[in-house]
Every structure is written in structure tokens, then in C-alpha cells.
């Protein structure tokens, strides 16, 4: 504490868990020793730190101190335990009041969800009109064009109005690769879309949003808070599905932050046509018979990075498995990171890409995404990422092979980096302001 801050016995502040010890500690008893051992107490640590050099030693010591401090988080100072029983009763009463506040917050979030559902219904005719223009069933009217040009002029003072339509000019229907372009112009999704994926995404003709049905209505997740994203497809050479869905389900009660808590996601099974599975790569390998020494060529498949892995979301292990230590900490961290990415992609599709699809197609939305990215970067320090080039998946098919590699190696892409809200955190609904979706 700074020596400029006067400490007077007659001006002591109210006791808190931070400034009130469990028992008195007179100066005559001396100061307690530091909980972090010095180098002389740990010969092996001293030798290891010395080998790191000055900067390495400083970083290592800082890590040791931070580790010790982290272990103190959440530990009681003894202040609450020292309070009298009447004061403790009042504290329990405050908790009871807070329970009622939480109940109201839960009701508020439910009503916000209903408000989003209401405005989605109002927007559906506009989304349907947008779809007609994109797929070429209709062309924009003069009124729609005028409204769009007015907005363009408002956004850009140098905007030049389009020339009037000539009498003999033919209408060009449809906008090719609209959704592929819009998705690729989203910074996070661009990392997930491979060149092979792009060939399939050219057949994507619409993405729609719906909320989970109410209690009593038809639907697997009726009564639960959440939403479903539906991808609509033209006939293509990759899979037979005409629609693919991804459903995000929130927990029934709001979390501590006052928002709905992400519970899990469920995706469609993709009916891939033969040899068209974009989530796997194939390679030719030689397999040698151990007895006859004869060789043969076999095909082996490997999971690979693909946008279509979005429809097979990661699953968080059970609490029992985690508590029992059945998972390696690194594997658990990887699953959590993949859940973060999966959750944020779903929220961005719902909150950004579907309502602002034309802005992502033109690239206008990138101006706002870049601003958000810069603000996020200001909150973090740069660190070396040693795992940047590691593949997203390590699993391979179970084949016994005593072979040399063939001539068709499987190429892997690095994993996408997570952005934004972590899985298990709140949705993007602002506690202060209901979003009108």
C-alpha cells in the first residue's frame, strides 16, 4: 500500500472479507513467511530457474506466484463466519430476495425470446421476398431499388445512382453463389470453408431461422428455449438432403449472468453420395502381407476440416467422466474450444448473417466485424500459438497396415480459432435491451 495513504485508528472503514482477519495478528508476533518458497529452499527449482536465464527466471517466478494466488480464490477470510447470528439471518434473507429477482430475470428472458419469435414472424414475408430475388423467381421492383439506393447514398456520400433501365434491356434473374459469398465474407466462417466445401455451398439457396416450438406443440424439443437453423439446398452431386438443420438448445433456467445458458446442439445426418463425403479425405496406401510379402493397394479415410462438420457438433463429456479424470486435460480443453467455435458460429448465423445477408454478400458488414475484432484484440496480449498448424482431427480409420505410404497423401488444414462467446455462457440477448429479431 502506498505510504501516502494515511491510516488512522479513528477512520477505519467497514470490515470486509478482504480487510478483516479471522484472528488478530500483533506486530510483536512478527510477519508470516511468504507461501512461495525462495530458491534456497528448493535446490531443484533453483537449478532449473538458473538455466532459464534472467527473463526466463522472472517469468517462471511470476507463474509460481500466480499459481499460489489462484489457489486462494474463493477461500474464506473468516469474516462471514465471524458475524453474529442475527446478521447471518439478515444475509439469508437477502439471498431469499435475490431468488425472487432471479425468477423475474428468468421470466424477462422468456418474454424476450417470445418477442424475438414475434418479430421473426413479421420478417418472414421479407425473407421470402429476398429468397425469390436470389434464386431468380422474381426481380427487384422499382420501389425496392429506390429504397436500396437511398440507403447506399446514406452510407456512402460518393455513391453514384444506377442508370435507369433501358426499354429493350432484359431482366437478369437470380444472384449466383449468393450464400456462398455471404458466408465467405464472414471472418469466422471463412476459416471453416475449404475449397472443396465451396463446390457444395454453391448449391445453398437459403438459410432460415425458427424458434423451438412451445410446450404442447409438435417437435422433439418442444417447450425448451432455443432455435433451429435450416439450410436449404438445390439438387447437387454431394448429398441427397434437400435441407440440413442445426438446433441449439439452451438450459431451462437463466445462468448467473442473467442470460440463457447454452446446453447442447444437435445437427442433421448428411446422406453423402458415394465418395463425396467432404468431412473425410481418402488416400491410397500399400499394404503388405506379413506371411507372403505380397502387397496390395487400399484406400484409407481420414477425418478432415470441413464446414460440414458444423452439422456434427462436439459433445461435452459428462460431469461424472470429467470428475473421474477419464479425459486428458488437453483433450478436454480442445473439446471446449470446439464448443466455443460451434456456439459462436450458430449465434453469428442467427444474429448477423441471416438478417444482414446482403451486407455480407457486398462486404459492407466487414466494416463492423473488423471494428468488433479490433476491440476484442485490445483486450488480449499476443501470445505464441504453438498449435496453430495442428490438424483439427487426429482420428483415422482402424486398419492394420504394415505398409509404406502411397502416392496420395492426405492434406490437413489447421483448426479454426475460436471467437467470441464460450460454450456454456449466455446467448447474445442483451439484459438491458431485447433484440428484435
Word description of this protein:
Pfam families: NAP (PF00956). One of its GO terms (cellular component) is nucleus. Belongs to the nucleosome assembly protein (NAP) family. The chain is of the alpha+beta class and about 425 residues long. Helices cover about 40% and strands about 10% of the residues. It has 11 helices and 6 strands. The chain has a 4-stranded antiparallel beta sheet. A two-stranded antiparallel ribbon has the order 5-6. It is extended, with a radius of gyration of 30 Å. Mean pLDDT is about 75; it is low at about 1-40 and about 385-435.
Structure at a glance:
Residues 1-22 have a biased composition (Polar residues). With 437 residues, this protein is α+β, with helices and mostly antiparallel strands.
Order of helices and strands: HHHHHHHEEEEEEHHHH
Q: How are strands sequenced across the largest beta sheet?
A: 1-2-3-4
| Mean pLDDT figure | 77
The total beta strand count reads 6
**Helix and strand composition category:** alpha+beta
Give the count of helical stretches: 11
**N-C termini distance:** 50 Å
Q: How much helicity do the residues have?
A: 25-40%
Report the major sheet. 4 strands, antiparallel
Relative strand content = 5-15%
Overall shape: it is: extended
Protein name: Nucleosome assembly protein
Biased composition (Polar residues): 1-22
GO cellular component, one term: nucleus
Family: Belongs to the nucleosome assembly protein (NAP) family.
Amino acid at each position: 500500500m502506498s505510504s501516502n495513504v494515511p491510516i488512522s485508528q479513528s477512520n477505519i472503514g467497514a470490515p470486509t472479507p478482504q480487510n478483516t482477519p479471522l484472528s488478530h495478528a500483533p506486530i510483536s508476533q512478527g510477519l508470516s513467511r511468504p507461501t512461495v518458497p525462495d530458491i534456497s529452499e528448493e535446490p531443484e527449482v533453483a537449478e532449473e530457474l538458473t538455466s532459464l536465464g534472467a527473463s526466463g527466471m522472472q517469468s517462471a517466478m511470476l507463474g509460481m506466484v500466480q499459481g499460489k494466488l489462484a489457489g486462494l480464490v474463493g477461500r474464506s477470510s473468516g469474516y462471514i463466519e465471524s458475524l453474529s447470528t442475527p446478521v447471518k439471518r439478515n444475509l439469508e434473507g437477502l439471498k431469499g430476495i435475490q431468488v425472487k429477482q432471479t425468477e423475474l430475470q428468468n421470466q424477462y428472458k422468456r418474454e424476450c425470446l417470445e418477442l424475438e419469435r414475434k418479430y421473426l414472424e413479421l420478417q418472414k414475408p421479407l425473407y421470402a421476398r429476398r429468397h425469390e430475388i436470389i434464386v431468380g423467381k422474381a426481380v427487384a421492383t422499382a420501389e425496392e431499388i429506390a429504397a436500396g439506393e437511398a440507403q447506399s447514398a446514406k452510407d456512402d456520400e460518393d455513391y453514384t445512382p444506377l442508370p435507369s433501365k433501358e426499354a429493350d434491356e432484359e431482366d437478369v434473374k437470380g444472384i449466383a453463389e449468393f450464400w456462398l459469398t455471404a458466408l465467405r465474407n464472414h471472418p469466422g466462417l471463412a476459416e471453416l470453408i475449404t475449397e472443396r466445401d465451396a463446390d457444395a455451398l454453391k448449391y445453398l439457396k437459403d438459410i432460415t431461422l425458427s424458434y423451438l416450438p412451445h410446450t404442447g406443440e409438435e417437435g422433439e424439443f418442444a417447450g425448451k428455449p432455443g432455435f433451429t437453423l435450416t439450410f436449404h439446398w438445390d439438387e447437387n452431386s454431394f448429398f441427397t438432403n434437400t435441407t440440413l438443420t442445426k438446433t441449439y438448445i439452451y438450459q431451462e433456467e437463466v445462468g448467473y449472468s442473467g442470460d440463457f445458458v447454452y446446453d447442447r446442439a444437435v445437427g442433421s445426418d448428411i446422406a453423402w453420395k458415394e465418395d463425396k463425403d467432404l468431412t473425410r479425405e481418402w488416400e491410397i496406401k500399400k499394404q503388405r502381407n506379413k506371411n507372403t510379402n505380397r502387397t496390395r493397394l487400399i484406400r484409407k479415410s481420414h477425418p478432415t476440416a470441413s464446414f460440414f462438420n458444423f452439422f456434427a457438433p462436439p459433445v461435452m463429456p459428462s460431469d461424472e467422466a470429467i470428475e473421474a479424470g477419464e479425459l486428458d486435460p488437453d483433450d478436454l480443453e480442445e473439446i471446449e474450444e470446439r464448443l466455443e467455435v460451434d456456439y459462436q458460429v450458430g449465434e453469428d448465423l442467427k444474429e448477423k448473417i441471416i438478417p444482414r445477408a446482403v451486407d455480407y454478400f457486398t462486404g459492407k458488414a466487414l466494416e463492423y466485424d473488423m471494428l468488433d475484432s479490433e476491440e476484442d484484440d485490445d483486450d488480449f496480449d499476443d501470445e505464441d500459438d504453438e498449435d496453430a498448424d495442428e490438424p483439427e482431427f487426429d482420428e483415422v480409420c482402424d486398419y492394420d497396415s504394415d505398409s509404406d505410404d502411397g502416392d496420395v497423401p492426405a492434406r490437413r488444414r489447421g483448426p479454426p480459432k475460436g471467437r467470441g462467446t464460450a460454450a456454456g455462457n449466455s446467448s447474445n440477448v442483451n439484459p438491458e435491451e431485447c433484440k428484435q429479431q
